[in-house]
Amino acid sequence: MKSVIVGRLALVAVIFELAACARAGTPADNGAASAGAANSAWVKNGASACQKYLTPDVLAAILLKPAGATARINDGQACHTDAIYINLKVADIDVFRQEVPRIVDTHPFAGVGDGAYWNAAGTSVAAVKGHTRGCDISVIGAATKIQNEALAQKLGEVCNKLFALP
């Protein structure tokens, strides 16, 4: 089961990479350099996202057992507890909307960013806001109190808080 989840996480990462490449291939405007710096700064919010947004109340609503300490990973654009991973990327909503129908067992849902889905395993959310922000949150190797869309909504709340950051 864990290998299936890890495989799906890799697929989500590929979608975000495709979205970033598609966006990078668009003509630059005069504000492109400053926009790139702002996107980079926003992605760096992933390093502290677990500590700031996976509060004891959030974790208690999701997990059957308490989560461990948080750690930063992936050059500061991601973090994890022993059960939940948060990864921020530069992603484009237009590419995201094109790719989601091609991914098996995804369930789109509203209220998170400009587009979001949860996977069939019910343990992962991918969301995109605008043409620059992508958020992926996954629960791996932990028993949860809630599953599927209920879990997606709870994880999506964290993405929305991250999307609101400068």
What does it look like?
This protein is of the alpha+beta class. It has one domain. It has a 7-stranded antiparallel beta sheet with strand order 1-2-3-7-6-5-4, with helices on both faces. The chain is globular. The N and C termini lie far apart (37 Å). The N terminus is likely disordered.
- In round numbers, the mean pLDDT is 82
- What structural category arises from helix and sheet content? alpha+beta
Number of domains: 1
Helix content, binned percent: 40-55%
**Strand order in space, largest sheet:** 1-2-3-7-6-5-4
**Shape type:** globular
Number of helices: 6
Give a quick account of the main beta sheet: strands, pairing sense, barrel closure: 7 strands, antiparallel
Order of helices and strands: HHHHEEEHEEEEH
Strand content: 15-25%
Taking all Cα atoms into account, the compactness measure Rg is: 15 Å
Ranges where pLDDT stays below 50 over 5 or more residues in a row are 1-34
Quote the distance from N terminus to C terminus.
37 Å
Total strand count, please? 7
